[in-house]
Amino acid sequence: MPRSIAEPVVPTPPKTYKLNCQSVVQGRVMPVFPDTESRVIARSPVPGSGPRIFPSSFCNERCFMRAVIQRVMRASVVVNESTTGEIAAGLLVLLGVEKNDTIDDLKYSVNKAVGLRVFEDQQQKMNLSLVDVGGQMLVVSQFTLLGDVRRGHRPSFVDAAEPELANQLYEAFVAAVRERGIDVQTGIFQAQMAVELVNDGPVTILIDSRKRF
Fold it and tell me: Per residue in 166-190, pLDDT tens?
């Protein structure tokens, strides 16, 4: 009796989703889901399987994405004595990702950062956005924004996202801003960075995706 030959297994290609008109691969950049239900992305316990998806009820009221945004005359970031990102007039965004952040947190943060009317018009009033003035943006990941000092003096970072998830959301934030036609420069994720800036104003805005301030 002839020995049966098993058919070769054809690997299933990874699913792709849309992120502000950009096609991205699941597990590499945070996908935008076709339904309107808010969902939570978390690390998968199986290597290479991409993030797990949980209903929004998994997230409690402490879930958020936080950013410190400064209007600058210029800003730069240096890693190992090499400049990795540098801008002229525009916005410096320090971005902190919480461990249970959702796609809604990402959308909110991107829309706020891009649409902030913190640049002066002809009447010297803050009335123009980064898009209006043709400015640049420097985005630097900063998990220390999630530091909790309500107890004691040593910050607790238990609410900060794990590096894998934080990097996915950080890259997704940068990609979404670039799709708005903005020149975005960045630091290097998890690197020891030296950030230099000249704050114009000074103007500093705090953004919390859960709108607590």
Answer: 888 889 999 999 999 999 999 999 8
Range of the domain at 72: 60-208
Q: What's the domain count of the chain? A: 1
Q: What is the dihedral of CA 144, 197, 82, 184, to 10 degrees?
A: 80
Please identify every residue annotated as catalytic: 144
The residue that leads in pLDDT, 127 or 65, is 127
Strand ranges for the chain from DSSP E: 16-19, 22-25, 39-42, 52-55, 65-79, 82-87, 90-97, 119-120, 126-128, 136-141, 184-186, 194-208
| Residue 27 falls inside a structural domain | no
Q: Which CATH number characterizes residue 64's domain?
A: 3.50.80.10
Decide if 53 is inside a domain. Answer: no
40/118: higher pLDDT: 118
**From its phi and psi, is residue 175 left (phi > 0), alpha (psi between -120 and 50) or beta?**
alpha
Cis peptide before 202 (omega within 30 of 0): yes
125 with 160: CB under 8 angstroms?
Answer: no
Two tokens at 102?
Answer: 């959702």
Cα–Cα distance for residue pair 111/185, rounded to 1 Å = 18
Phi first, then psi, for residue 157 (nearest 5°) are -115, 30
**What average pLDDT does the segment 3-23 reach?**
42
* Rounded mean pLDDT, 195-213: 87
The answer as to whether 41 is a domain residue is: no
Q: Does position 193 have pLDDT exceeding 80, yes or no?
A: yes
Q: 46 in a domain, yes or no?
A: no
